[in-house]
Specification:
FAD/NAD(P)-binding domain, 709 residues, Elongation Factor Tu (Ef-tu), domain 3, Arc Repressor Mutant, subunit A, 4 domains, globular, 22 helices, 6-stranded mixed β-sheet, alpha+beta
């Protein structure tokens, strides 16, 4: 560990003027820092930057300044569900989205064949460019100081009487014995909390290859009474690009034009034609045989700790899905880099066996391994010990973000980091916490899942975890969060806020203009013959209705009706968003009704004798088992049972309400004695419904490995 601290302090700017960055009136800590962030990964950098943007004098403690912006595993950002998180982090003025727009070498929108609500923005990034740009952002953030040191312990004091918790954090103890006093502390230790690297049967303490783990903090947290668990993850070997035969592999080109992550970016830094391709190959029976014959040489697989379900190691895939080919994506690590990242080939076999696995795969017969894959096992804390603001319930003013909460991935870490940084700053100032609810964003779903349900495996975000995903789209993250980030959190710049306000006003004007233009179907057919309209419709249609048709867009409408539509069509981002708003209008209205339905009926009583295995509701077998064993009394109680999905709550709510309505009708109109209330539905119908529910609620296999197409 680094005990000799090397400081990089930035000159503090003049006191901010009126606006979201105005400092609070509370007294500053003795050392001059209001927020201390421990850890320089994505959760740590986003937390430190958010706290500083909010006006707090912030200290970022990292074991090595050179690792700020380091992509420890895959050189990519975004994906299905994860791309939503990056857009929401950007809407709150986070860093990772706009840094990706300065470092990407392959931009792709996944799920293009589906609706915009589940599009997954994704980018392969140049490791060096990403690291350099992120470090530049951090080292040039006003009110933020970076210090290179290890942290061994926490300084604690008596708790505040008006908040839960048995003590309050007031500072940290560094590895050299010095102390730093502060108003709030954010822990973002990633995989470094008692981290252990595994390669074959060998293991040694580390949180990342070449970096030491954090032992003292782990012991402190255990002494304080935190429930600590153990998780594992892994990374694949790295390959030399010039030793791979790409000629017979499936090429996947990037999007042209590429779609930026950040709402502030008009375009990405790279020309569309200069983007790099990814290539797809597959494992085969020979690959599987090598793995199966050598499982006894792999401690990482034999351990009982849980690994990532949706990005598992090759050994785990061979055990779970024998006799199956598995995808291996060959992803470039940079424009000038000779390193290829084989996505899907994570393994912890001994190095010589990893080489055998590699050369057994098509295209890799002569590939040279630059670095073997390895596994990491590390401590994490049960996130149910946190509030929705990510503050600990046991220790006041102590916040947690990132993999220490049981998540996996840069995007999940960054999302937690932004929220923890905002709330650590607000806590010092005595202001209410900034909470994103499930109805407002994927960030809200992520944090609510963690803090109410917990996790026993690395948590990964998917669109299927979100019940209101038609409303929570990547395109409207700024409309949902930027205004709140400016007014309540103080973390959003004036420039971003003004841009979001301008876009919101333009959207409202555009929708109003489109809805005001109403003609008959025959008239529309004359104006826009390229759009196929149903001749059976008799009522007039608005231009907004026309925009819902796949063939229609703002350019076509503006040619047909130049005034007042020309000005909206000229703004490309606006015209694209108007198209999406039109496509999802009816879905959003329905989902808003569902949101209110759950809120109003949370206290609805459930029948005590309800047979959850027989009811005609779209519930999976797992959900039915949990309901039957817990016997909740209200819909609100159902929502607090670990493992019950939000969609299941809505379906159960509808069933119970229908049952109540039928009971009321029966009271008004008595039936004959042939009516048997306990046999309302046949076993066959219930069985079919159950099977259908299981299929609808399970994760699709396509999410098993994160792919660039």
């Amino acid at each position: 560990m680094l005990c000799r601290g090397r400081w990089r302090r930035l000159a503090l700017p003049p006191a901010p003027g009126p606006g979201p960055r105005r400092a609070g009136s509370g007294a500053a800590p003795a050392a001059g820092y209001e927020v201390v962030v421990i850890g320089g990964g994505h959760a740590g950098t986003e937390a430190a930057a958010a706290a500083a943007r909010g006006g707090a004098r912030t200290l970022l403690l990292t074991h090595k300044i050179g690792t700020i912006g380091q992509l420890s595993c895959n050189p990519s950002f975004g994906g299905i569900g994860k791309g939503h998180l990056v857009r929401e982090v950007d809407a709150l003025d986070g860093l990772c989205g706009r840094v990706c727009d300065l470092a990407g070498v392959h931009y792709k929108v996944l799920n293009r064949c589906k609706g915009p609500a589940v599009w997954g923005l994704r980018a392969q990034v140049d490791r060096g460019l990403y690291r350099d740009n992120m470090r530049k952002e951090i080292l040039n953030t006003p009110l933020l100081t970076v210090h290179e040191a290890s942290v061994e312990d926490l300084l604690l004091t008596e708790p505040e009487p008006d908040h839960p918790g048995k003590c309050r954090v007031r500072g940290v103890v560094l590895g050299d014995g010095s102390t730093v006093h502060t108003g709030s502390v954010i822990l973002t230790t990633g995989t470094f909390l008692r981290g252990m690297i595994h390669v074959g049967l060998e293991k040694h303490p580390a949180g990342r290859l070449g970096d030491q783990p954090s032992i003292g903090l782990a012991q402190t947290l255990e002494r304080l009474g935190f429930a600590v668990g153990r998780l594992k993850t892994g990374t694949p070997p790295r390959l030399a690009k010039d030793t791979i035969d790409f000629s017979g592999l499936e090429e996947r080109t990037a999007d042209n034009p590429p779609v930026p992550f950040s709402f502030l970016s008009k375009a990405v830094w790279i020309k569309p034609e200069n983007q790099l391709s990814c290539y797809l190959t597959y494992t085969n029976p020979k690959t599987q045989q090598i793995v199966q014959d050598n499982l006894h040489l792999n401690n990482h697989v034999r351990e009982t700790t849980k690994g990532p379900r949706y990005c598992p190691s090759l050994e785990a895939k061979v055990l779970r899905f024998p006799n199956r080919e598995h995808q291996v994506w060959l992803e470039p690590e940079g424009l000038e880099s000779n390193v290829i990242y084989p996505q899907g080939l994570s393994m912890t076999l001994p190095p010589e066996l990893q080489e055998q696995v590699i050369i057994s795969i098509r295209g890799l017969e002569k590939a040279k391994m630059l670095q073997p894959g390895y596994g990491v096992q590390y401590d994490y804390l049960d996130p149910r010990q946190l509030t929705a603001s990510l503050e600990s319930r046991l220790v006041q003013r102590l916040f947690f973000a990132g993999q220490i909460n049981g998540t996996t991935g840069y995007e999940e870490a960054a999302a937690q980091g932004v929220i923890a940084g905002i709330n650590a700053c607000l806590r010092v100032r005595g202001k209410p916490p900034f909470i994103v609810s499930r109805t407002e964003g994927y960030i809200g779903v992520l944090i609510d899942d963690l803090t109410t349900l917990g996790t026993n495996e690395p948590y990964r975000m998917f669109t299927s975890r979100v019940e209101f995903r038609m409303s929570l789209r990547p395109d409207n993250a700024d409309a949902r969060l930027t205004h709140r980030g400016f007014e309540e959190a103080g973390c959003v710049s004036q420039q971003r806020y003004e841009q979001a306000v301008k876009m919101k006003a333009a959207l409202e004007d555009g929708i109003a203009a489109l809805k005001s233009l109403q003609f008959s179907v025959s008239k529309w057919s004359q104006l826009i013959p390229e759009v196929r309209l149903s001749s059976s419709r008799r009522s007039p249609m608005s231009a907004f209705d026309i925009l819902q048709y796949p063939e229609a867009n703002m350019e076509i409408l503006a040619r047909a009706i130049p005034e007042p539509l020309r000005k909206f069509a000229k703004w490309r981002e606006l015209s694209e968003r108007l198209k999406i708003e039109a496509a999802y209008e009816w879905c959003v209205v329905n989902q808003q009704e569902e949101i209110e339905e759950v809120r109003q009926d949370e206290a609805l009583q459930l029948p005590e004798d309800l047979d959850y295995f027989a009811i005609d509701a779209s519930l999976s077998t797992e959900v039915r088992e949990k309901l039957s064993s817990n016997r909740p009394q209200t819909i609100g109680a159902v929502s607090r049972i670990p493992g019950i999905t939000p969609a299941a709550i809505v379906n159960l709510l509808r069933f119970v309400k229908n049952k109540h309505r039928k009971a009321e009708k029966l009271k008004a109109f008595p039936q004959t004695d042939k009516y048997l209330p306990g046999k309302m539905y046949s076993e066959k119908a219930a069985s079919q419904t159950q099977i259908s529910a299981e299929l609808s609620e399970e994760e699709p296999e396509s999410t098993f490995v994160k792919t660039p197409v």
